[in-house]
Amino acid sequence: MSEALRLKLAPWLATLALVLVWEAGCRIFAIEEFLLPTPSASLKALWDYAGAIWHNAFFTLWVTLLGFALAVGFGLVLGVATGASRLAYAALYPMLIGFNSIPKVAIVPILVIWFGIGAVPAVLTAFLISFFPIVVNVATGIATLEPELEDVLRSLGARPRDILLKVGLPRAMPYFFASLKVAVTLAFVGSVISETIAGNQGIGYLMLQASSSFKTPLVFAGLIVVAVMGIGMYAAFAWLEQRMTGWAFRGQQPVG
Amino acid sequence: MALIEAERVALRYGGAAGTLALDGFSLAVEPGEFAALVGPSGCGKSSFLKVVSGLHPVSAGTARLHGAPIAGPQHGIGMAFQNATLLPWRSTLENVLLPLEVSRDHRATFRRRRTEHEARALALLRTVGLAEFRDHAPFQLSGGMQQRANLCRALVHEPEILLLDEPFAALDAFTREELWAVLQDLWMQRRFTVVLVTHDLREAVFLADRIHVVSRRPGRIVRSRDVDLPRPRTLATTFEPAFVDIVHELRDEISRVRQG
What we know:
The complex is a heterodimer of chains A (256) and B (260).
Chain A: H1 3-28, H2 39-48, H3 50-84, H4 86-101, H5 108-115, H6 119-143, H7 147-155, H8 160-198, H9 203-212, H10 216-244
Chain B: E1 4-13, E2 19-29, E3 34-38, H1 45-52, E4 60-65, E5 68-69, E6 77-81, H2 92-102, H3 114-127, H4 143-155, E7 161-165, H5 173-190, E8 193-197, H6 201-207, E9 210-214, E10 221-226, H7 241-259
Parallel strand pairs in B: 3-8, 3-9, 6-7, 7-8
Antiparallel strand pairs in B: 1-2, 1-4, 4-5, 9-10
Helix pairs in contact in B: 2-3, 2-4, 4-5, 6-7
């Protein structure tokens, strides 16, 4: 088997191995279904409740992407500001870190007081949990401009704005796209947390309902759906990253 | 009148208690001259380039360009460092064009005169043997080729003064000597004024008209010496007794400087 083929198969085989161990473990130790359902039971639940799951997964997906889109816009602006201005960095960074340290679970009740139950708290939680990595990465990309290059450009009388547009921003793009992969999976965490605490729709809400009636296989079906959506979004943004900033991935291949 | 003049220049980084990089540094560079600064590492050679380019104000003394005190970025200066810092998302040609896009003197007219600029950049790339690599990405170029492109980027706006800070220090010996010849060719064609900072004495003797030895920090010129070897100098020149003698003499001088 070629190296490339083995690498392609590896994730599928590893997942399959996990499923088999899980299934065998449940059967050998005769674990009650309401404690830990087998993967087959979870998949059956996925099939049986396909309609409800589909409806709620779609809701979670768009709530997540809406929050994520807000995070991308806000993260870019704040990242550029803190990366390009030492003053903005000094002023805002401690606050950002403090804010990022707050568990987002603790914020959901406040959002509910402000906006009521439903999509808005979920969108905002997805936004709040996912903008931080974008800010940090964009700021890093801009702030790590080589001092020599900056000297070359400044000695030409280049304006800070030109340096930012021609060098800083393009340079930050690989960092930006790398952060999107992480941020979009975090956004799912945010929206599902919010739906679990204060939702009336969505996968998180469905899982909460299922668990309160001991339909544990359905809970696991929900977890699988969230994981699959996370992987799908991660893959989509990894693909986008490759397309947009391929120059940052090519290895050294000198011709001379 | 000298083009670049420094009179008892002092340069201190970071406030009154900061490091004194230069003190009592006096130097004159004539138009079209190729000057080299050599000295122990950390002696403030590079700091002088910061003064000339207007990136750092002097703390005492005066530095003049064309007789006028240097305050802020100057017109007609090109710079190149040891690290080529080409932008990886731009082709070689686009990298060479970057100074014209952002410089105070050209950015307003860059788009309108793009064809003309491109022709100029291409002519430079041709001189250094990179014409056929105009559309290559920097990562496809070897270290020596990147440094050639870096030289082109420093010269594309046809500066009067070229400031070089150990431009070839990261290259292997063969490539380095190749690039000495490339730089000498460019200089002989265009006759800009060069200030080269280097710790490679052979490099200084090969390239410069006049070599200045800088003391330990805080740097000042302790000795200046003309190099009157005929041009163009070639690799063969570096084995001639006259060349070797100058290198030895400078080496002794630097040893004395280092022991202080």
